[in-house]
Amino acid sequence: AQKVTQAQTEISVVEKEDVTLDCVYETRDTTYYLFWYKQPPSGELVFLIRRNSFDEQNEISGRYSWNFQKSTSSFNFTITASQVVDSAVYFCALSGQVSGTYKYIFGTGTRLKVLA
Amino acid sequence: DAMVIQNPRYQVTQFGKPVTLSCSQTLNHNVMYWYQQKSSQAPKLLFHYYDKDFNNEADTPDNFQSRRPNTSFCFLDIRSPGLGDAAMYLCATSRVRVNTEAFFGQGTRLTVV
C-alpha cells in the first residue's frame, strides 16, 4: 500500500522554539519521491522540498531542514527558530503508483501554531 | 506573479444548481489536477489531465466533470451540487505526472446553500 502518515495533528510552539514535524511513509516502489508542502490560511499549497529515494542526504534551506531516513521510512521536517509566519498546515506527500496511475499521496497534515 | 490562477476565490451556489470553477496556468505544464479538500483533511484527487488525456479517480462521483479546452485552462463542473460538496477546490499543475512537484492555485472555496 502507498500511504503517508503524519501522526501529529496539531503542534503549538512559542516563537523562536525549534519544532519537528514527523512524516512516515509506506511504499512498494523502489524509486519514489517525497515532498513537503505548506498551506497557509490563504489556502494555496506552497511547495517546499522534493527528495528522491536515492538521495538520503539531509537538506537545509535557511531555517528549514529535512531528515530523510529510508531505514525508518521517515522524512521529517524541522523549523529552527520558528516565527509566527510559519503558522500553517504542513503536508507531507509521496509520489507513487496507485492502481496503475502515478499520483501524489498526501498525509493528513500537521497544523503548526507559532505563538508570539 | 501567480502561475496557477483559480477563479473565483469564493463561490456560493444553490443546492442542485450547476456551478463551474476555473483554473488557468502560465507554466505550460502538461498535467493539470483537481483536488477537493474538506476542513482539516488532506487534499483528495478528483481527476487529472495529462495533455488531453483525462484520468478520473474511481471514487469521484459522476456529479463532478472536467474540461480542458487547451493547455492553459481547466474547468471543474459540478452538475448538481449537494451540501456535501461544500469544500475547497484546488487546482494544481505539474510538468509531468511522475516524481515532480506540483504547483497549486489558491483554491476556490465553494459554499452550497
Structural write-up:
The complex is a heterodimer of chains A (116) and B (113). In chain A, the strands form three sheets. In chain A, strands 2, 5, 6, 10, 11 and 12 form a six-stranded mixed sheet that branches. Chain A has a four-stranded antiparallel sheet with strand order 3-9-8-7, with no helix packed on it. Chain A contains no helices and twelve strands. Chain A has 116 residues and is an all-beta fold. Helix content of chain A is 0%, strand content 57%. In chain A, 32% of the residues are buried. Chain A is globular. In chain B, 0% of the residues lie in helices and 51% in strands. Chain B has 113 residues and is an all-beta fold. The model of chain B has no long low-confidence stretch (mean pLDDT 93). In chain B, the strands form two sheets. In chain B, strands 2, 4, 5, 6, 9, 10 and 11 form a seven-stranded mixed sheet that branches. In chain B, strands 1-3-8-7 form a four-stranded antiparallel sheet, with no helix packed on it. Classes of the chains: A mainly beta (116), B mainly beta (113). The interface between A and B is medium-sized, with 25 and 23 residues.
Compact summary:
The complex is a heterodimer of chains A (116) and B (113). Chain A is mostly beta strands and 116 residues long. Chain A is built from no helices and twelve strands.
User: Percentage of helical residues of chain B?
Assistant: under 10%
What is the strand content of chain B?
over 45%
Mean pLDDT score of chain A, rounded?
Answer: 92
Q: What's the main sheet of chain A like?
A: 6 strands, mixed
Oligomer classification = heterodimer
* Helix residue percentage of chain A: under 10%
Taking pLDDT < 50 over at least 5 consecutive residues as the criterion, the unreliable ranges of chain B are none
Distance between the ends of chain B? 33 Å
Rg of chain B, Å, rounded: 13 Å
User: Largest interface, and how many residues on either side?
Assistant: A-B, 25 and 23 residues
Strand content of chain A: over 45%
DSSP, total strands of chain A? 12
| End-to-end separation of chain A | 41 Å
Identify low-pLDDT runs of chain A: none
If you average the pLDDT of chain B, what whole number results? 93
The helix-strand sequence of chain A is EEEEEEEEEEEE
Beta strands of chain B, count: 11
Structural class of chain B: mainly beta
